[in-house]
Amino acid sequence: MKAIIITGVSRGLGKAFFDILKDKNYYLICISRSFVDYQNKQAELDNNIELIKLDLNSINDVIIKLNHSVMQNKCNFDELIFINNAGVISPIGKVGNIDEKAIKQSININFVSPVLIANYLSAFCSKHQIGFKIINITTGAADKGFEGWSLYCSTKSAMKMYLSVIEKENGAVVENIDPGVLDTGMQKEIRAATKFDFPLIDQFQNLEKENKLQKPYEVAFNILKSSGLI
Length: 230
Known about the structure:
Number of domains: 1
Radius of gyration: 18 Å
Helix content: 40-55%
Number of helices: 7
CATH class: Alpha Beta
Oligomer: single chain
Largest sheet: 6 strands, parallel
Shape: globular
Order of helices and strands: EHEEHEHEHEHHH
Strand order of the largest sheet: 3-2-1-4-5-6
CATH topology: Rossmann fold
């Protein structure tokens, strides 16, 4: 059986991944700060679905919780697939005006925690001779700097570089996928910023007004289909 580890399944694209994959023949390990529709309902879910309540900002807890899930089922896996989906756009603001706590949180969620997960899974798969694939949900901001998004741009760019090294070192399959602009909570947060903090805010507000935001379910379906998972 293939195991799929997904971060950020409580809403948006992550929830769409979960909704599509939950009835397929995979062992799903779902990581999120909360589970909007499934919290406290583990008993009602398929035996091949595990919910791990974890804030990726709490970097000291990441491997402890993941290790328990992966190790107890290692004999059943012939491939591990890590969908690195969770991410935060905040803090939005100009360098020099950003709170230190918000800086650390952005780095932990967008970079440190997925690095820890990928490092752990890479070692695990090598040791047990299991195939390893990473689907990294990235962004155009990883390749181009935007005023007000210093942390988002830099952490997303750093993650792509880190995964490129993993691919070279151990032959893991890495797919960096930019899903485009989706109708999610992140977009609401962007639209709520001030023009001072984010000079391009008009452009993003117009995307909503012109109904140009993509639906998460449709995007998730296309990503999973192109990756051969459905």
